[in-house]
Amino acid sequence: MQSENDSRRRLGNWMPGAEDKSAAFRAEIAAKAQQRAKHTALSSVVQDLGKLIDHDPVLRMNLSRAIDEALGMGKRLGYSNIEELLVIIDYLTTFSPPFDEDAPVATPLNTVLDWPMCMPSGYAVFRDSVFNAQLRRVLNTWCAFLSGPRSRVWLTTETGGWFSPAALDKLGMDDYVHDRARPYWGFDSWNAFFTRRLRPGARPVEGRDDPAVIVNACEASPFDVRENVRLVDRFWIKSQPYSLKEMLTSSDEALARTFVGGTVYQGYLSAFNYHRWHAPVDGRVSEAYNVDGTYFSDAEAQGADPGGLNDSQGYTTAVAARAIIVIESDNPAIGKVACVFVGMAEVSSCQVCVRPGDDVRKGDELGWFQYGGSTYCMIFRAGVIDRFVPRPPWHDDVPPLKVNAALAYCKSQLHRANAESR
């Protein structure tokens, strides 16, 4: 009999919704990894991860316990100890995800770690800063593979290919720059395909000349809107309130204080979405920086649930690897807007392509997610937002709000001045 957790839906189609399909993927990958290990030594980066675990008795104890706890619950992991897990991780550094409409596995390492990461002993492992630093090296190695020509194995029209008829129905490739007459449709790597560019005019900027219109910075489905956010809050509890100081992690606390009492909008990206970021307002970039963090940490408040990372999206804004871009709007009624682009799971890097001092117009490119499950926030000062276009209640697996489409409308300067004088 399936439990509620076994059949839980996943946001964004990054992994199968049914646990039996995830377990089947883990078994298949484990068999291929073990076969490869017979004639291929572990890569140096995975050997270094193994040495870190082996030389840290607390880390080794907690990871071993997390695996045992998951197995004790009857979960089919595809491995029974750390050594077998390392073999699978090594195999995945040369893995290109195929397209599968029924059981997508766009984040394979997340699927492999699904259960240990939400076990009682697993929470400490996946928050350990040294462990995450070594994981980042592993993910960067995988990212390098995905940026090379050998990663294009599934850029085909065959079954399982990202140009198959079923995949094209999902992707809407006519909106993107490509050349079907060229091999691999002109993409020189998996990452080039994943970060594909839009054709000119494919996402027109709504309200281009209306300073009251704030446009969507990412092609993402609405996840949450919170008002009256605090400088510091308990982001790890069930309700996962947004904590500005942790989200922005700036050496200058004045930046976070700018948004106290303001509003946070959060959206999540699908595996099939466009993954570049665009400016939500006209203005000047005042801050642009990356923050190191976790990759597979979720909140205990979600319980022993393989979908916990999806449901911990508020929590991840305070702890996960992310890029932060702050724009000083040309419209004084808006002022500063902070965009927080969060790399969940296998996102190896959040690439920022603007710098402080750059002038941007609504719709200009700001950067992109290199790969993996992703979520993002926009933070507004108190009293700025008149109304959002997306409205609650929020539902999972809803179509994304297009990038450059109207996200919100700001209050007029007169309205703000009257509110601030009360």
Automatic annotation (TrEMBL):
The keyword Lyase applies. Residues 44-171 form the L-tryptophan decarboxylase PsiD-like domain. It comes from Paraburkholderia tropica. This is Phosphatidylserine decarboxylase. Signal peptide: none annotated. The keyword Lyase applies. Pfam families: PS_Dcarbxylase (PF02666), PSDC (PF12588). Keywords: Decarboxylase, Lyase, Pyruvate, Zymogen.
